[in-house]
Amino acid sequence: MTSSDLWSRETAERYDAGETETSSPAVLGPTVDFLAGLAGDGRALEFAIGTGRVGVPLRERGVPVVGIELSEHMAAVLRRKVDEDTLPVTIGDMATTVVPGGFTLVYLVYNTISNLLTQDEQVECFRNAARHLEPGGRFVIELGVPPLRFLPPGQVAVPFDVSERHLGFDTFDLVEQLLVSHHFSREGDGDGEDNGGAGHYRRAESRHRYAWPAELDLMARIAGLERERRVADWDGSPFTEDSGKHISVWRKPA
């Protein structure tokens, strides 16, 4: 098993409800268009497929999809949406687990490569992608750009969401290249103060290893892949110094 945090049954059961925005047609439409275009007439393999937020609609688009997922609880939620014959899922980690057959596309979305907490494991993830790709196939990663330029001297925390029902911020270990995402989510309709209202706040956190785009390019090179494209979002907008994330595509030489 890798160093990734293992998602619990409780987290898996509430995951989809917390991802309504990223599951909207405005987000999923361009995502599925982008991935389907790369898969072509071949098969796609999703590392860390989770509850099938992307894999299920990609399969509905007509692309045969296979998944690898570390959490049995997340896979159980996916299984309520689609059966095993339609979308097979293997329980295992994305750095070492191997599934049968070749793929024209392997993809890893929503910052999930950062769940691997060591550089060695992230390199192995690239190698595992290359292992599954047919010649000419592509590996795609969606990953945020570390917001370190927003850190004043001596500060280790950066907020990423301050809204009525959610407070989120990241704390950074700049020596080990690690971050912890902290979430305070409001539940119920009360004010949550002193437990006097119907609402309360649920706290959660997750650990990640952040990586720069250039570092990922080197990992790809180690795995025998060549960078083909880097954009700022699934709509293909240009990646610039102000981009908060990137979609990167590497190709296995024919």
TrEMBL record:
A Pfam family annotated for this UniProt entry: Methyltransf_25
Q: Which Gene3D superfamilies match?
A: Vaccinia Virus protein VP39 (3.40.50.150)
What keywords tag this UniProt record? Methyltransferase, Transferase
Q: Which residues form a coiled coil?
A: none
Q: Which InterPro entries match?
A: Methyltransf_25 (IPR041698), SAM-dependent_MTases_sf (IPR029063)
Q: Does the keyword tRNA-binding apply?
A: no
Q: Does the keyword Transferase apply?
A: yes
Domain Methyltransferase: from-to ranges: 45-137
Entry's Gene Ontology BP terms: methylation
Chain intervals for the UniProt region annotation (Disordered): 1-24
| GO molecular-function term, one example from the UniProt record | methyltransferase activity
Bias (Basic and acidic residues) ranges: 7-17
The name under which this protein is listed is Class I SAM-dependent methyltransferase
